[in-house]
Amino acid sequence: MHINGARAVIESLKNEGVELIFGYPGGAVLTLYDEIYKTKFPHILTRHEQGAVHAADGYARATGKVGVCVATSGPGATNLITGIATANIDSIPLVCITGQVATPFIGKDSFQEADVCGITSPITKHNYLVRYAEDLPRVLKEAFFIAGTGRPGPVVIDIAKDAFAAEFDYEYPDSVNLRGYSGINIGDEKTIDSVVTALQKAKKPVIFTGGGVISSDTHKFLRKFASSMHIPVTSTLMGLGCADPDSDGYLGMAGMHGSYASNIAIMECDLLIGIGVRFDDRVTGIVNQFAPNAAIIHFDIDHAEINKNIKTELSVIGDLQWSLPLFLEKTAPYVSSIKSNCKEWYEYTIKMQKENPFTYKEDKTHILAQEAISKISDMSGPDTVAVTDVGQHQMWTAQFFKIYGPRNFITSGGLGTMGYGLPAAMGAKLGMPQKKVLLFSGDGSIMMNCQEMATLADYAIDIKIIVIHNSVLGMVTQWQRMFYGKRYSHSLFKSKADIVKIAQAMGIKGYRIEKKEDLKTGLEKIFSEHGPVLIDIVVPEVQDVLPMVPGGKRLDEMVLEGDI
Amino acid sequence: MKYQIAILAENKPGVLTHVSGLISRRAFNIETINAGYTEENDVTRINIVVNAYNETELNKVIHQMAKLIDVIKIVNISELPSINRELIMVKVKADTPAVRADIVNIANIFRAHIVDVGHENVVLELTGEQEKLAALIDMLNCYDILEIARTGPIALSRGTTPIKNM
């Protein structure tokens, strides 16, 4: 097939089974957009490149496929940066195609030129600068392979404008040939044997599960592991959905805003089995006091994660698809003895969780965020996807919205990117049209990518946006209240902006719920409507996310109520 | 502690930036870095000396570097029996016959080569381990050193097994 580079990109996307891309055109990608036009390749035009990359990320998280976005050179590419970093730290597979100025103009500070490979090196799994069209099939094949295998991550392909235009004989390779990367992660079986031995000796084991279980699609093994041996499960923010929230031994989220039972179980356990986690500082509290009485075991695909933050006794390095089934097989003969060994502990943790659920003091006159989120959770089916922005509402959603399955909770965990939610929810809905998609946002976060409401309207993307509107930057004010003497420096929005009117002006429906008595009926009415809707729920300014483990403290030093 | 690391990488643009960027991002200090072609023409060998707090910290950065797609193999040569060499060139002021004779003498003692000589200066070249190079510089410090260029150390493990097969 004698085609140009731009068409080669489209054909390669087709070969990779890509069904939808997100993007924004510009000078350096005009040839590519011309081919998108000619081939009618499915493309969502966002209102900002940041919207495109977060949408591709939300699409990837919801579907498990590689998300694809396109941006032009210079500012188009630099607008992707926040989204690439967001995907990178949460290990989300993306292929980001950026245009670059034509080869003769590279390095001359040309119009709309930026060193995209230089800028994105620290925040990508890999990147490419393509100068010759002939390289495109190989590079695209490699990019999808690298993004989607092993520990997933974003790959950037920066393509010179003239490479899009040059014609060549296109042939898509069947396989990749990378000496430094196999994508296969089968570990040493002996490491699993030692974990089996350790588990047999344990009296107080805890499973600590993370995002790796979701990206490897191994939640079924994890659930079987926990339920068959009666081992309590706690989760990181990124791992929500791995475990069944209604199951007995599920203790809820751990960490800074984690549940009492989870944090105490981590402090008291004698064996902590981390699965697909990276022991982030938000979850460990003070790092040398994390699980102080426990032997720590770490299952992970990435060798570099072992002993990075937490020193472990045993590690099983390899794909969880390899290790977890094998581990279950090897533990099978000991299931009943493990179960009886841990009986007392299991019951103790369940009791602890039952007596200390996430809670809040109801307010007689005002709607509280926690209350609204709980109600919405009750109204939503198990197949609902909850997407969040970043801040107090994010933590409250993690605490009060029940996540029944993997890929049903989409949040910027590692980078904590405000403005992530709206475009990510959009991508999630487009990837999973059969699922109900809810976005929980705040009046701070929603404004950071509010332009994407126009995209929602244009494509009639049916998501429900719940804005928890407290007229402050909630998490910032919480810290200012607790640690900065209530000096609310630039965190109070005395804004005249009307979010409902913004929604309406962008072409989607917008409602406001202010009165407590209107909450239930209002929500019911709005959820029954078809198409994108924004609901502005007005809540009080002063509310803290609790429990809270203050920075530099142990997990059992969490504050449950009142001031810190 | 200083550690000598050898990295085999795809000979592609940007590899050196990737590797060095990763090291500095993890707050390690690169003492020296050099790269060159190997027995396979599409493979580059990058030789790095890093300053790391201890071996655990070093291993963290080695694992991070091993994740780079273009990195084929990475080995901490310091922990292996190995031969370590560096090349140095020193330009010394030598504007009198007496000084020139002195420097030629020193060069002979160290088995350094005089690779350039003029009316005003002499250039010495020496290959060896770092202690030997340091000793030469120490001797030449009695004269007027005008300029130094050095490659940074390179190392090969002893025995028949190349690091790519380790």
UniProtKB/TrEMBL annotation, chain B:
The entry's keywords: Amino-acid biosynthesis, Branched-chain amino acid biosynthesis, Transferase
Matching PANTHER family: ACETOLACTATE SYNTHASE SMALL SUBUNIT, ACETOLACTATE SYNTHASE SMALL SUBUNIT 1, CHLOROPLASTIC
Protein name: Acetolactate synthase small subunit
Role noted for this protein: Catalyzes the conversion of 2 pyruvate molecules into acetolactate in the first common step of the biosynthetic pathway of the branched-amino acids such as leucine, isoleucine, and valine.
Keyword Amino-acid biosynthesis applies: yes
Family that this chain belongs to: Belongs to the acetolactate synthase small subunit family.
Source organism: Pectinatus haikarae
Keyword flag Cell membrane: no
Catalytic activity: 2 pyruvate + H(+) = (2S)-2-acetolactate + CO2
NCBIfam families membership: acolac_sm, PRK11895.1
EC number(s) on file: 2.2.1.6
Pathway assigned to this chain's UniProt record: Amino-acid biosynthesis; L-valine biosynthesis; L-valine from pyruvate: step 1/4; Amino-acid biosynthesis; L-isoleucine biosynthesis; L-isoleucine from 2-oxobutanoate: step 1/4
Subunit: Dimer of large and small chains.
Record-level Gene Ontology MF annotations: acetolactate synthase activity
Gene3D superfamilies, alphabetized: 3.30.70.260, ACT-like. Chain A, domain 2
PROSITE patterns in the cross-refs: ACT
